[in-house]
Specification:
heterodimer, A: eight-stranded antiparallel barrel, four-stranded antiparallel sheet, B: alpha+beta, Rossmann fold, Dna Ligase, domain 1, 4 domains, 24 strands
Chain lengths: 166, 477
């Protein structure tokens, strides 16, 4: 059994399945628990036509380095190997898209409350306020005008564990 | 002599304007920022001029650079498209002062109608109902909560903030001001009563500049997120007698300023009254649905300064906006490089696209949706004899559309077209939030993903050394 993570739809789902491609027979077999489904496959332009009984579906799939994108009837899904036991990453103050820092709402070293606005970023003429994921001391890592990417930490919120300032 | 048109815009609208201009025998000039050097609109025009770095203020809002580009290329006309400088009266005046024809209304009528506050005053003087409003510092008592803080110079849904009680006013005013200043160069904001689930109805007008106005049907643009339209359609038969009333209000407003070229008068309908919202003194994103039902080319009429005759709409047209954004993340813009792109085809289907379809082996890499601009990548427009036939045609067209590389609105558009309220035409500006998301068979998804990753060596090469007849796809991380 292999675990897969399918995202891009209304919510990410985890699927346990064994998938086999038989190029000689022109089939793809998907076993999910007790259910085994066999699709016939024919290459078609950018993608394939998958057939099951009398039902045929056009699919397009593009393999990336870590995940594979699939489009079925206008619906795009992103498939990745589900990492077992992976923990959610710690909450960080990072933009959801490439953006430009437009305003700093706190001074470096300020004590902030959970949910307090820390920094605003602008992308595509939209302004977005990034808020503190927890209470603590703000360490500002960027300046107004910086171009920032998802994953960049704009402000560290440091929690003092022993009561003293870190 | 061949006349030259400079298109002061980018993306799908620049491509769309260039197509008509070339049909009219005009020489077309594109302008581009460094983010757009290889963009489709640049490749579509006869010549292209770089106007600056990616930031809009340094490029598509850069008046000196645009005027220099027009001068260098000998442009006779400038079409501003929508957004950017399209509603900037000073730019329109500067263009005409340079002896270049501005494809749009005069600077004077833009000043009278282009700012939301100015347009409200004109409407009030003509007896057209407007929503209660107030300026910052005034009493908000007659406006009430919830209300909207709006940028007077705004458009396209930007520079707007909802406020539910008095404590949120200051932050919303400041945010709206900052956004408005960055996007439109004007930080004037005001508060207006917020209708919770109105229908957005708008009337297309076209003026000859001498008081003659053609009313060119109306559009329903109620399917919106973040106050930005996602689905538009024409006509609005459900309005009954109100249709004619709105046409005459729009005509009066346009005629009062001797309006020239294409414009749109927007109303919010709460089921009883249709309140005047604003006038857009430019071509609208959604102008194609009007073109489809009236069988005319609004851009050609603009370029030729020819007043289109009024006529009754034929059939029904729907437009869907394909935007690079993530509906699951609150419709956040999702710029990036596109992978496979395929647009739909077939009878009654029109695509106004800003990015290329992907090529086969050896083709250039996919087009990029830059983070600096609006993330609209294409509009899909369908025309059919009835609304239901148009809805079915749009569903088919969207299911035939492929965009990979970035999340898009396509799936949410499909779900909305299947929504009961949309089918019954009971929808409102709040409907999109309630649309039930559809899903896709995970076995099909996994089968397709396996095909993309299980190398097709056996298929193309007759079986490479490592390709057995069965491949177990364990992982492709």
């Amino acid at each position: 059994m292999s675990g897969w993570r399918i995202s891009g739809g209304p919510g990410a789902v985890r699927a346990e399945a064994v998938v086999r491609v038989d190029h000689a027979a022109g089939t793809v077999t998907v076993e999910m628990g007790p259910t085994k489904r066999v699709f016939g496959m024919v290459r078609s332009g950018d993608g394939w036509v998958l057939s099951e009984g009398t039902t045929r579906t056009r699919v397009v799939a593009v393999a990336g380095e870590r995940e594979t994108e699939v489009v079925v009837d206008g619906r795009r899904r992103v498939v990745a190997v589900a990492a077992p036991g992976a923990k959610a990453p710690p909450p960080i103050v990072t933009p959801p898209m490439p953006a430009v820092v437009s305003r700093l709402l706190v001074d470096d070293g300020a004590e902030v409350k959970e949910g307090q606005g820390l920094v605003t970023v602008t992308a595509m003429k939209m302004e977005l306020t990034l808020r503190a994921p927890r209470a603590g001391m703000a360490r500002v890592r960027v300046a107004v005008g910086d171009r920032v990417m998802p994953g960049d930490v704009l402000v560290d919120v440091i929690v003092a564990t022993d009561g003293s300032r870190p | 002599m061949t006349r030259t048109l400079l298109i002061a815009n980018r993306g799908e609208i620049a491509v769309r304007i260039a197509r008509t201009a070339r049909e009219l025998g005009l020489r077309t000039i594109a302008v581009y920022s460094d983010a757009d050097a290889t963009a489709l609109h640049v490749a579509t025009c006869d010549d292209a001029v770089r106007i600056g770095p990616p930031s809009p203020s340094a490029s598509y809002l850069n008046v000196p650079a645009l005027l220099a580009a027009a001068k260098a290329t000998g442009a006779h006309l400038i079409h501003p498209g929508y957004g950017f400088l399209s509603e900037n009266a000073d730019f329109a005046d500067a263009v005409e002062a340079a002896g270049i024809e501005w494809v749009g209304p005069t600077g004077a009528s833009m000043r009278a109608l282009g700012s939301k506050l100015g347009a409200r005053a004109v409407a009030t003087s003509l007896g057209i109902p407007v929503l209660p409003s107030a300026r910052p510092g005034e009493s908000f008592a007659n406006v009430g909560f919830p209300l909207l803080i709006k940028a007077s110079g705004g458009g396209g849904g930007r520079g707007m903030r909802r406020v539910d009680d008095a404590s949120g006013v200051d932050e919303a005013v400041e945010a709206a001001r900052a956004e408005a200043l960055a996007a439109f160069g004007d930080d004037t904001v005001y508060a207006e009563r917020l209708l919770l689930s109105p229908r957005h109805i708008e009337v297309q007008v076209f003026g000859d500049g001498e008081g003659g106005v053609s009313v060119l049907s109306e559009r329903d643009c109620s399917i919106q997120r973040r106050h930005q339209k996602l689905i538009e359609e024409a006509p609005c038969a459900f309005l009954g007698d109100l249709r004619g009333v709105l046409h005459e209000r729009a005509r009066a407003l346009a005629a009062s300023v001797r309006y020239r070229s294409a414009g749109t008068v927007e109303f919010l309908w709460d089921g009883q009254e249709a309140w005047f919202l604003e006038m857009n003194t430019r071509l609208q994103v959604e102008h194609p649905v009007t073109e489809m039902v009236l069988g005319l080319d609004l851009v050609a009429a603009q370029l030729q300064r020819r007043l289109p005759a009024e006529s009754e709409p034929q059939g029904h047209a729907i437009e869907c906006r394909v935007v690079a954004e993530d509906p699951a993340a609150g419709f956040l813009p999702a710029p990036g490089r596109l992978g496979v792109v395929r647009w739909p085809r077939g009878p009654g289907v029109r695509v106004d696209e800003g990015v290329r379809e992907s090529g086969g082996p050896g083709a250039s890499a996919g087009d990029v949706v830059p983070p600096d601009y609006d993330a609209l990548i294409a509009k899909i427009i369908v025309h059919a004899p009835t609304r239901e036939a148009a809805r079915q045609r749009m569903l088919r067209a969207l299911e035939d559309t492929v965009v990979t590389g970035v999340p898009t609105t396509i799936e949410r558009l499909i779900d909305t077209l299947r929504d009961g309220a949309f089918i019954a035409q009971n929808h409102s500006t709040g409907t999109l939030a309630d649309v039930v998301a559809g899903d896709v068979d995970p076995a099909l998804v996994l089968a397709a993903a396996a095909l993309a990753t299980a190398s097709p060596r056996a298929e193309v090469g007759g079986g490479g050394p490592a390709a057995g007849p069965w491949q177990t796809v364990g992982r492709w991380a």
